[in-house]
Fold these 2 entries.
Entry 1:
Amino acid sequence: MSDQFNTSKSDYVNALVNIGNIYFIENKLQKALKYLHKAQQNDPMNPRVRLAYARLIQLLQEDQRIHKL
């Protein structure tokens, strides 16, 4: 039963990352942030989650710097 739960959680997190990445590609960054944040909350040590979340945060920070110019 425990393995089934882990697989389900892993599948859920992967789905969240996939949805977040789709929104990222479509430049819908706030929607991407919503899904990647959920993925990060569910599996904060997952390297795929960390990479996608960090990439988005970096882009959002760069975007804010550009708007301040």
Entry 2:
Amino acid sequence: MGLKADRLTPVPCTVLSAAAISREFGVMDHHMCEVEVCRILVERAERVILAADASKFTAKGLIAACPLAEIDLLVTDAPPPAELAQALEAADVELMVA
């Protein structure tokens, strides 16, 4: 039985991880079950935070989980490459390098 988004309570905030972050495809993962959970959490959350280390900027993912425009805040350990930084800015994603 699959997950049903309409049965879940809205949440004020969700924190996601990713296998990769793509300027073209957004948040990427390798497993469909993780993508399904990500999509439901994004749909139900008022604020979406993506926590990802800098290795995700050059990693490859198999399945697009959500576009960059769905992310409110990216928390990472290093600034993203210029092209990805531009895509994040265009998608109105706040960036926090910690």
